[in-house]
Specification:
The chain has 263 residues and is α/β, with parallel strands linked by helices. Helix content is 32%, strand content 19%. The protein contains 8 helices and 12 strands. The strands form 2 sheets. The chain has an 8-stranded parallel beta sheet with strand order 5-8-7-6-11-9-12-10, with helices on both faces.
Amino acid sequence: MVPRPDSESIVIWGLHPVREFIESCPEAVERVYCLPSFGIRGQGKRFKSWLKARGVRAEEVKRLLDVGVSAGSIHQGIAAVVKKVWEVGQEEGLKALTFSTSGAGGPVIACDGVTDPQNFGAIIRGAVALGAQYVLAQRRGSSPVTGAVVKASSGAVAMARILYVDNLIRFLSRLRQAGWTVLGLDPGAKRFIWQECLSGRDVVLVLGSEHKGLRKGIKMLCDDLLSIPLAGKVQSLNVSQAAGIVLYEWLRQKGAGSDTPYL
């Protein structure tokens, strides 16, 4: 019988996610599985040679469904069981953030009710790529990190720090008390993201849910609300696109220097 992951691990699948975990966080990889046909030709063949060069053995199974891969997933013939190394405890995360308020670190991306695994995975990838310290989400009512999320992030979850909290409003309030500035993205806001100083201070950038946006309680908590101006016929953005844009604006301001005026 094929061993199943326990509560401290999940199943991931696909060439890029499995490769990223083996490269970035090999200690998290517990087992690797593949189909009998994997490695016969093309990408799979090169990947199997890559695994062998690193001393990683892929166990053959008749069906990846049997090891926990979701039905209908594009798994490319390979999967792995990995430990949840990305997850940070609530108190540990709060302590780290409240005792390091200097503006030197990257922002925190907070997700207020983002439930779609594709969006959540894309947000995580953008956060890792553009320098966010943490991805923050309320445990109830948010997407958990699943194999689908890892696939959507192309394995960037391996390098992420994800902080699930019991109550997002309460947690953000404690960060504000510790000196963090909380900024919400709202399409109806009058101020644009480049009109706010994002760099040189500790900021939390809050994204709303796919359908409802920011909750009223979150909006009331925010120090300011910001929007991303749009010039085309489509007048809304996917939440993961919005995350990438506002994180890039933080990075742009950081590279420009704190004495650069904002438009």
